Amino acid sequence: MHHTFDPDLVIVESRLQELPRNVRLTVDSLFYQGRLLRCNRNDIAWNQIQKTFNIPIPEPSSSTKAVVDCLVNHMGVLAVIFVCILLVILVIVIVKYTAG
Q1: Fewer CB in 10 Å around end: N or C, the chain?
Q2: DSSP class of 9
Q3: Which of 38-47, 51-60, 77-86 has the lowest mean pLDDT?
Q4: 41, 28 in Cβ contact below 8 A?
Q5: How crowded is residue 41: how many other Cβ atoms within 10 Å of its Cβ?
Q6: How far apart are the C-alpha atoms of 87 and 78, rounded to whole Å?
Q7: Is the pTM of this model over 0.70?
Q8: Closest-CA residue to 15 (of 30, 27, 32, 5)
Q9: Residue 32 in 3-state DSSP?
């Protein structure tokens, strides 16, 4: 694990170092303030861990997938609703400050 705020940090890969025979895998990961960074290096490390230890890749639940599909399919309607809400808020603010 390498402590950095830079997700594009170039580091010497730990797998190139000589390791004990009982070590099955060495991966490099980047973290900052106690959390893994969202970066390609960490994605690669996680994929290597999954492959080495046969960890199945979880499929999204059907309910989660249905919600995401619904949001994607109705993005235009959601945008119109959002704009209407903003306009109503704007009218309320204008009326409040011009009436007083």
Answers
A1: C
A2: -
A3: 51-60
A4: yes
A5: 20
A6: 14
A7: no
A8: 27
A9: strand
